[in-house]
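The pair is quoted verbatim underneath.

:::
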Amino acid sequence: MSAVLPPQVQSVLAPAGEAAARITSLSWLLIFGATLIFLFVMGLLVAALRGRAQARPVSARLWILGGGVFFPLVVLSALLAWTHVRTPGWMERPPPGAVIVGITAHMWWWEVRYRDPASGQEVTLANELHLPAGRPVWLGLSSPNVIHSFWVPALGGKMDMVPGRVDHLMVQVDQPGNWRGQCAEYCGEQHARMAIHVVAHAPAAFDAWLAAQARPAPVPDTALLERGRAAFLAQRCNACHTVRGVAEESRLGPDLTHVGSRLYLGAGTLLNQPGAMAHWIAHTQEVKPGARMPSSADIDTDTLTALGAWLEHLK
C-alpha cells in the first residue's frame, strides 16, 4: 500500500490546515456560547420554580423583548460579522503555484484527475486525493448524475457538487498525514459507502508520487500475472476500466492503472490487502449492494486468483 492507513475518525475539531482551523474556532465558539446560554436558561428555570412568583405583565413583556428579540439579534449579528471577517473570499482563479485537481463524484465513487507537469500526461485515480503539504490545492468539483457533496472535515467546509456546474474549493494542509472524507449529500443506495481518503506528502515525495502515477501499468513478470492480465481482457473488464498500457479510455468505472497502490477498494469499503481484490471481484454486490459493478462469482478459482494477483501487482 502507498501510505500508512488513515484514521477513520472524521472531525472538524482536528484541523489540518488554515481553512479547517477557522471552522474549528467557529465550532468551539458555538459550543461554548450554546453552553453558556443553556446554563443561563436553566438557571432562570430553577429560579422560577423556586420562587413560584406570578410575573407582572410589564416584566413579562420585558423578558420577551429582551430574551426573545434583542438578545438573539445582538448575538446573531455579532456572529455574522465575526464569521464574515474570518471567511476567505471567493477566488475566480487559482493562486500562482497551486496544484489543480479535478474531482468528479460518481455513484458511488470519486474520480480524481491530475496533470503531470513533466509529461503533460493526465493522471486519473479513484477515491484518493494526494496533496503536497504546505502548497495550495485548487479543487474543481463536478457531478454527472445527482447532487453529491465533497467533505473532508480536516481540510475545510463541504462543497456541493451539482450536475452541470463546476465549483471550486481551495484546500491546503500544513503537514504530511492521512485523513478521511465522505459524501455529505444523500445520493442514493450506497451514499454511506462513498468515502474519499486524503494523503498529504512532503513536496518532493508528492512530485515522485505524481511521476510514478503518470507511468503506464507495470509489465507482468510471472506466468500468474500474465494469466491475470489475459483474464482482465477476456472477461471484458476493459469495457468499464482503463489500465494504461493495457486498455485505454474506458471511463464507466475507476481507472485501475495503479489500483494496487491504493489504500481501499470500493470507495473505502474494503481494506486493500492481499486477497481483497479477488473477493471484491467475485462478491461486489454482497460487499456493496447497488454498486454499478456486477459480481463475478462465475469465474473459476484459478482465473479469479490470477486476475486478483495481477490487479494487486498494479502499483
The chain has a mean pLDDT of 88. The chain is about 35% helix and 20% strand. The radius of gyration is 25 Å.
